[in-house]
């Protein structure tokens, strides 16, 4: 009977998840996000230029200007969102569950109890490899929607997290 | 009774040869049909009867050889707590399923199998991809025994502590729900004809236009009288067609219902439900209680008149396959529903809890997306047409009405163990689940929702997810915390 407690459970005194307590992702991950935006924009601009070259008739100047400004607006918008949205991204490991939150315009917070985790995976993309980062993916039985993915973790942290979670899961088997 | 020795590899019934042959023939036709078409169309090759005959004989012989080799190399047995199936002669394949992992064992019988008096056995697993087993031909008695054996082994593994349970399982089944042909008639009529009708109507409208064209041409050729007659009777024709399609769609639904659910029986066993149904293909599905993730029931205006609910049991998804295991009863009466709910969820305590509705913001958001956005976009181009404005207003009114109904049906009830979510607009869908079946929870809040202190909550279980949109932020957070707490202290297995 060690540490036995049996207090009344009311919704008010349940442990609350506060967004402030979340661990931020590694700041290097923001660089990856920027590089991804840059690559995407290169593709779009490349396609646009190719379109201009291959198009027989010369399109109206107004069209070119509006297209360029549209691309510019999208670039600025995504960059701003990435900068201000980055501090919103974070993960939190508690005694019995793990959570991930993100989102500036649409805020989302997802939690998975340890006793519902099926298995854990550590992944590393090409960009992440350069920056020495990894992501941890947590699978549940609920399929895609309920799986949790935590990107932008230093390789060491990701490994430790995986080991920690695997240990927790094995307790529930 | 259990005198069969599963540890020895054994083949399926000899009658399986016929089934393998038919399947092989079907496959080769599916692969070679363009070639066959070509041969048939090009008369030159067809003229040479000898070559054609030779080709046919060779194909036939190859199929026979394939059948025999396939049959001889198809084994199944149980070893070390695993069900093993060996198959293939050119490329050998071995499938193994740990008995404890078996999700369900189902038997099926199509027309040919009924004639041969054999059944096919399917074994589903949870979590492992591409590991669904199928044995095509088993003698009926043997299949039943194997069925029981596999399931009892399964339960032995799952519930080691409780050995009495296995004995108790053998006790007789209790019939809960049986649908007579008359019930099926009612169910068939109360299906959603609007949907079927629309599909058939769209299809029919094309034919109608074609017909009109043809008649118009003919009329020019033969007599103007006929043309006048047909164009004059357009209204009558349309009314006739509408009635015709309505009748067709009702008949269609009726036939579908009767074929699929003929002689429907829902039986209760010690640990599971068993469903039996079908006219041509007989389904036999066993649903262990602990694998059921949620219960859905649905009713519509027509169904309500007859007092019918459509029942759906949702089972765990196999992770990689993303296939939701659905088992449904097309119709049951209120008393059946009450019985099943009491059976699955215990005493009906949820009815005493209060309904918590989604906020009216939800209505506005829906109306903006469904009503206002589609209305404002084309108005840039069409603002000069008066018919346009008329249909705009009509659309806004219709969508407002529909979304109002959606809001009125969007509520949930929760107590310490269970949640029931209601949704729908014209029809009414209800979902109930035990909170410990939750796999993960999601809290979602847009910046617009934040201003009104609202949020949406999504609860995910192994068969899918359910969303509670636009509820009070603090309630959403409390439920979020409570669901986590409840799942984390729960000792029960979600499956």
Summary?
By secondary structure, chain A is α+β, with helices and mostly antiparallel strands. Chain A has helices spanning about 30-55, 60-85, 125-130, 155-170; strands at about 25, 90-95, 95-100, 105-115, 115-125, 135-140, 150-155. Chain B has about 500 residues and is of the alpha+beta class.
Describe this structure in words.
By secondary structure, chain A is an alpha+beta fold. Chain A has 2 domains: 28-85; 91-172, Roll (PH-domain like). Chain A has helices at 28-54, 61-85, 126-130, 155-172; strands spanning 23-24, 90-93, 97-102, 106-113, 117-123, 133-140, 148-154. In chain A, a hairpin with a 7-residue loop joins strand 6 (133-140) and strand 7. In chain A, helix 1 packs antiparallel against helix 2. The longest helix of chain A has 27 residues, at 28-54. The mean pLDDT of chain A is 86. Chain B has 495 residues and is an alpha+beta fold. Chain B folds into 3 domains: 16-171, Pleckstrin-homology domain (PH domain)/Phosphotyrosine-binding domain (PTB) (PH-domain like, Roll); 188-261, no CATH class; 352-489, PH-domain like (Roll). Helix content of chain B is 50%, strand content 26%. Chain B contains 16 helices and 20 strands. In chain B, the strands form 4 sheets. In chain B, strands 6-5-4-10-9-8-7 form a 7-stranded antiparallel β-sheet, sandwiched between helices. The longest helix of chain B has 29 residues, at 193-221. The two termini of chain B are 29 Å apart. The model of chain B is unreliable at 155-170 and 319-324 (pLDDT under 50). The chains are: A alpha+beta (173), B alpha+beta (495). The interface between A and B is medium-sized, with 32 and 36 residues.
């Amino acid at each position: 009977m060690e540490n036995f407690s049996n207090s009344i459970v009311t919704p008010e005194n349940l442990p609350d998840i506060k967004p402030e307590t979340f661990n931020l992702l590694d700041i290097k991950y923001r660089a990856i996000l920027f590089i991804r935006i840059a690559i995407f924009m290169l593709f779009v601009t490349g396609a646009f230029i190719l379109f201009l070259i291959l198009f027989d008739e010369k399109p109206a100047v107004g069209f070119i200007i509006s297209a360029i400004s549209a691309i510019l607006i999208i670039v600025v918008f995504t960059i701003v969102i990435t900068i201000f949205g980055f501090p919103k991204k974070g993960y939190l490991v508690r005694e019995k569950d793990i959570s991930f939150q993100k989102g500036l315009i649409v805020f989302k917070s997802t939690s998975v109890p340890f006793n519902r985790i099926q298995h854990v995976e550590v992944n590393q993309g090409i960009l992440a490899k350069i920056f020495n980062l990894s992501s941890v993916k947590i699978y549940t039985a609920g399929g895609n929607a309920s799986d949790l993915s935590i990107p932008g973790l230093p390789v060491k942290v990701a490994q430790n997290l995986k080991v920690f979670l695997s240990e927790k899961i094995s307790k529930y088997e | 009774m259990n005198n069969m020795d599963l540890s020895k590899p054994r083949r399926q019934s000899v009658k399986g040869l016929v089934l393998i042959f038919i399947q092989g023939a079907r496959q080769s036709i599916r692969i070679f049909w363009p070639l066959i078409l070509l041969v048939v169309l090009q008369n030159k090759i067809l003229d040479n009867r000898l070559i054609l005959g030779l080709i046919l004989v060779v194909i036939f012989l190859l199929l026979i050889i394939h059948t025999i080799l396939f049959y001889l190399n198809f084994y199944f047995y149980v070893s070390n707590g695993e069900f093993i199936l060996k198959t293939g002669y050119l490329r050998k394949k071995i499938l193994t399923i740990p008995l404890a992992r078996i999700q369900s064992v189902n038997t099926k019988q199509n027309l040919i199998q009924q004639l041969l008096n054999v059944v096919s056995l399917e074994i589903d697993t949870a979590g492992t991809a591409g590991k669904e087993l199928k044995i095509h031909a088993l003698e009926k008695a043997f299949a039943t025994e194997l069925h029981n054996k596999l399931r009892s082994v399964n339960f032995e593994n799952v519930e080691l502590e409780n050995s009495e349970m296995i004995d108790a399982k053998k006790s007789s089944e209790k019939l809960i729900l049986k649908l007579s042909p008359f019930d099926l008639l009612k169910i068939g009529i109360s299906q959603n004809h609007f949907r079927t009708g629309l599909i058939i109507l769209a299809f029919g409208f094309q034919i109608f236009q074609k017909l009109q064209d043809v008649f118009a041409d003919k009329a020019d050729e033969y007599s103007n009288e006929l043309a006048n007659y047909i164009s004059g009777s357009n209204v009558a024709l349309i009314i006739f067609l509408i009635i015709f399609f309505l009748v067709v769609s009702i008949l269609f639904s009726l036939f579908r219902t009767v074929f699929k659910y003929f002689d429907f029986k829902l039986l209760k066993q010690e640990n599971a439900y068993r469903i039996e149904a079908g006219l041509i293909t007989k389904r036999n599905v066993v649903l262990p209680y602990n694998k059921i993730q949620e219960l859905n029931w649905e009713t519509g205006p027509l169904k309500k008149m007859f007092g019918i609910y459509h029942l759906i049991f949702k089972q765990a998804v196999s992770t990689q396959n993303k296939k939701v295991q659905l088992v449904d009863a097309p119709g049951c009466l209120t008393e059946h529903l009450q019985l099943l709910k009491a059976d699955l969820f215990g005493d009906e305590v949820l009815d005493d809890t209060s309904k918590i509705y989604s906020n009216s913001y939800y209505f506005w958001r829906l109306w903006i997306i469904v009503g206002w956005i589609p209305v404002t976009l084309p108005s840039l181009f069409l603002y000069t047409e008066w018919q346009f404005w008329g249909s705009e207003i009509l659309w806004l009114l219709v969508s407002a009405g529909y979304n109002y109904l959606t809001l009125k049906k969007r509520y949930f009830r929760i107590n310490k163990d269970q949640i029931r979510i209601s949704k729908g607009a014209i029809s009414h869908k209800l979902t109930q689940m035990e909170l410990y079946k939750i796999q993960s929870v999601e809290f979602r809040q847009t910046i617009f929702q934040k201003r009104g202190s609202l949020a949406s909550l999504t609860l995910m279980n192994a068969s899918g997810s359910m969303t509670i949109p636009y509820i009070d932020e603090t309630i959403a957070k409390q439920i979020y915390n409570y669901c986590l707490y409840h799942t984390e202290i729960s000792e029960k297995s979600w499956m």
